[in-house]
Amino acid sequence: MPHALCTTVHDAALARRAPYIYGILLSLEGATILYIGQTLSRLGALGRLAQHLSEATGATLRQRIESLYNVTEIDGLSLEFAAVRLGQQKSFWTDEADYREAVESLVQRQVLNVLCERKIPVCLISRVQPNAYCHVGYVESEARRVFEAIRKWVESLSPKHQGEGGGGWGY
To answer: Per-residue pLDDT tens for 131-141?
Structure first.
């Protein structure tokens, strides 16, 4: 008997056009993989997730997994997704991605530092280049806010965190 493919969306606002920094967390071949990105998709963060999982040209998550793990099929894999909406600064809401990419870069660097410092076995596979906007005060402030939300999200998924009542990002 065929089974239903299921997902849970905790907030339908994720499908609205807005600037987001997002994380995708999945397990593959015994490895925990994290991808961090940014979007201002007309279909919101959910639209960008759908693009990542599709076979379209913008499916950078799928492309990174194929190149790093030599895996061509990700259908059937379970994943977790979280998105943090960026603030109302006009620079985050323009089609030019430079300011969003600056926030993404700072968040990714903070996440990578935590993973390394705490020896957490999560492989961060996304790539982003820092740019001059990384030094703008409100970009740095927004990156700290977004990082805290992403950190809390990852911790909430951590078996160690759930089972022992805290203690960081232990997997």
So the answer is: 999 999 999 99
